[in-house]
Amino acid sequence: MKKMTILFFSLFFINLLFSQEGAIKITNQTSEKERIIKENKRIKIKTIDGQKISGRFKIEKDNIILIKKQRIELTNIKEIKRNSLLVSILTSGFFIYTGAITLGFSVLIGVLVDSTAFLLAIPAAGMIYTGIKSPNFQKKYKNESNWTFELILTSE
Questions:
Q1: What are the sequence ranges of the domains in the chain?
Q2: Dist. CA 41–CA 107, nearest whole Å
């Protein structure tokens, strides 16, 4: 019985050691707020050079993350933003669908009732374009606004 309990505790301990995963910890220096983005989540990054990169990130060693086979040091990140796939799909789908319905109604009303209804095609085109560009309404964490980035290990 004693051997079984030691075996179970050692298995649980080994499981805790290997179940840790990396994350980016974003901390505001003035208000002490913290945000954590776990590894393999979708993010959008803008570097100091002005390059914009989005995708799932993986953590490498020595403060380097990997997005779409590009290595980025945490010191080179100007701003970071979470990019949820579900929110992107819902917002872009909403804008495209609403723009298409507005465009359809403007053509239908313009042909059958009044030709000034064709002016509704302008906001409809804007909505479709906005849906294609896939807006992201998540909060940006900028280096300029006293946010600092560091890599940590978290347990699930």
A1: 20-83+138-155, 87-133
A2: 42
